[in-house]
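Inputs:
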Amino acid sequence: MPSLAGLFFWIMDKFKDIKKITISKPLKLDCGKTISNFPIAYETYGKLNHEKNNAILVFHALTGDQFVTETNPITNKEGWWITAVGPGKSIDTNKYFVVCANVIGGCMGSLGPRNINPETNQPYGLDFPVITIKDMVRAQETLLNHLGVKKLLCATGGSMGGMQLLQFCATFPDKTFSAIPIACSSSHSAQNIALNELARQAIMADPVWDNGKYFLKNVQPKNGLAVARMVGHISYLSEKGMQEKFGRKLQEKADYEFSFNADFQVESYLRHQGYAFVERFDANSILYITRAMDYFDLSKQFRGGLVEAFRNQKTKFLVISFTSDWLYTTKENKDIVIALNSSGADVSFSEIKTDKGHDSFLLNENEFLKTLKGFIDSMYEKFKNEKGI
Amino acid sequence: MKKEFKVIAELLPDNSRVLDVGCGDGSLMDLLEREKKIEVRGLEINNDNVQKCILKGLPVIQGNAETELHQFPNQSFDYVILSQTLQAFYNPDKVLKELLRIGSSVIVSIPNFGYWKVRINLLLFGKMPITKTLPNSWYNTPNLHMCTIKDLFNFCDEKNINIKKVIGVNQDKTSLITRGNLELKNLFSKLGIFLIG
């Protein structure tokens, strides 16, 4: 059993091999502070072709990272979107060049609260500036220039990834030929802010959190972070899906134990998910990223509302929602479609029937994966025929 | 290629902006985009059809025309097409009003309930008609509000909707329908295509 410090250095050592660029150009954040010389960690799959017209940018969700597919070298688990991305899959890495970057505020190599604050030579903790979805997106745009991609074939993302994508299209209207926002929203709803607040309060209520200074003792507020993750997991499923998966089934026992141990399978599932999560994620990162989600309101940024955000869009959109998603409902996704329509943009919309809730975009949902593939392949044919890329 | 689509395509100028309401699998949109460089958009309720459109790279919005036309701004299209669906709405009059709000012109095609074979079915056999354009039985037909070419003519007059052109289709033959030949054409056209607005 290695010591905690040993473990820390072992983790840091693993991070040494991941792809990173340092962005030297100062980035003025929405909060008013400026960051410069900061790292953006990323991963790529497939090859950029000679014409440079096969690049697809993927934006990851709250607890995702740049390791979209194959094996995540840090966790040794499958990439979070292995169902959709890979050789022969919907986003075919034999054909397309897939890029994904870790968001700033995250904990997979991009600048985040775990990084060293040059002013104190200590990890930032709560001295890290509060970031926004727009800050995340602007940092990632710099990466595209570094990779030599002038215009993307497609950009996509689900959940917070979809929110980043909408921001990306609004801020850089001519940077991608097509876009697929999945199960997302153009402004975070009261319900979603409330759920994020629940997650944050769980972390902050853990005494180990210590105002975000837990890193000084090389520990993590595991209990609080696990509860935060449990909240998330409930919101990613649907009532029906949960009932079908767990019902009132007991966890490896014949009857109630008359205790507070995990009698029910659903309890056991949540505990497992919660405590597995603390191994790979930083508690302060959850605070910062959920805050960025809560502040997201695209219509507020543009004075005439959401329609103005999409004014002069040349990007071809496909918005996808899932019938049983109560976190980012079809209604919220349709509002995006209506705004795109009103601004005259080229937009398609598909609502996928499923009981799997918000999580559906990460699962083997056949109809969803077929739609994704069909759209991207047809966009590639159109993009190839466009002049003057 | 359906004759109806050819007729509709001929009514549309190149490079115009067209919304196809109830666009099905996108056959018409595909034709208009390829051959007339028309900027097309579709609205379709059926999931499989939506997928088919997306696979063809055609922009389509999944939704119900009866309740979701409000998302399209006033006069945002040069033409709005409604092919053989008017009779399936709960409120065809309201839908038509919406179409006229969205498009400068509207093309509506209807299976003609005044077609002679339909009339014979009722008159001689006393049965609800089943034909190629009306293939369902009375109990499972999606057609709630059947009408004849004459009915739609009169409807437009009543509502002060400008009729620009009406074309009758029977198999491969098409003919111009006017007030003058309406009685006859109403008997011999399987399909009526109205350009209004």
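Chain A has twelve helices and 14 strands. Flag for discussion at group meeting.
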